Structure formats: C-alpha cells, structure tokens
Amino acid sequence: MMLEELCHELNNWFDENPKDGTKRHYFGEFTIENGALDLSEIGIQTGQYFRIVGSVFNDGVYQYPANGLADEIFDGAVWAMAIPSPVIALADEIDEWREKYQTVASPAMSPYNAESFGGYSYSKSGSGSSTGTSSLFGTWQNAYSARLNKWRKIK
User: Fold this and answer.
1) Which of 36, 47, 121, 149 has the greatest count of CB atoms below 10 A from its CB?
2) For the CA atoms of 64, 68, 51, 7, what is the dihedral angle to 10 degrees?
3) What is the pLDDT along the chain (155 residues), one digit of tens a residue?
C-alpha cells in the first residue's frame, strides 16, 4: 500500500512514457475474474506496475500479474506505470521507517512532547535532519520531504 500512498503524496503516478511523454491510459470495460486481470493485450509487462481507476473494489496500484483482486466487471481505466527503481526502494525504506517509528508503542506517536514517570523521562525534539532516519518528524511525509521533492509534481 505504501507505493500508492507515495504516488498520491508526490502527485505523480509515473504514467508517462519516458521516451515521448505520452500517458498510457487505457479506458474501457475490464473484467477481473478468478482474482486476476489480464492486461497482456494492452502491453503491460510482467513485473510492471499499473494503476486501476474506476473500479468499485480494486482501485489502486499493483504489480503485474496482480492476483487476489476482487472479481468484478468495471468501466474505468488502467494506467501503465513506469516507476523508477529508486522510488520503489524509497517506498520500501519508508515502510521500514513506519514500522519502526509509527507504531502505537513508539514515543514518536505519543501526543506528548515530554513525559516523566517512575524515574523515566523523555522529550521529543522538534529539530533534526531530513535524512529519513530520524523519528523526530512524526510523519513519513515530513521525514522524507527533501528526498521526495525530486519526483514531486505540482498539484
């Protein structure tokens, strides 16, 4: 799910053909049967990411071949995506960061800036570097902002 969130945050679905700048959006009626969507006729390649838009149950970003989709027939679109490998690696890194810093047990998720009890105390700092490794930012968007800007599109 992180890759979809990341594309949404960047306002960039990496749906343009890098060679000529055209978007590869395919519109029509699509059938998801036995949990799978056959996209071989529109040129989606094994391992390539794509986005489903207009589905009742399956809107989102998937890697082809996507299995485990909810069966349906929908009028919508499939967008071929060309997500750069550094963006995919960054999505994985953000997932790891979230597991470490955005859990219920993490002090970073506490609503308090400082606490002290039973001889234990901590305080959160409001400063730090934007390397994406610090828990001091509260959200992955803040922690990774500088690294995300390269791929951001204006809304």
Assistant:
1) 36
2) -100
3) 589 999 999 999 999 877 787 889 999 999 999 999 999 899 899 999 999 999 999 999 999 999 999 999 999 999 999 999 999 999 999 999 988 887 766 555 555 556 777 778 766 654 444 444 444 557 899 999 999 999 999 87
CA distances, 146 to each of 29, 75, 131, 132, 141 (Å): 40, 38, 8, 9, 9
Domain boundary among 56, 80, 104: 80
Closest CA to 144 of 8, 6, 49: 6
Any domain includes 47: yes
What DSSP string describes 57-77? S--EEEESSP-SPPPEEEEEE
Amino acid type, 151: W
- Domain span at residue 42 reads 2-80
In a domain, 114, yes or no: yes
Q: Which residues pair with 49 in a beta bridge?
A: 63
Phi-psi region of 44 (alpha: psi -120 to 50; beta: other; left: phi over 0): beta
Q: Is residue 155 situated within a structural domain?
A: no
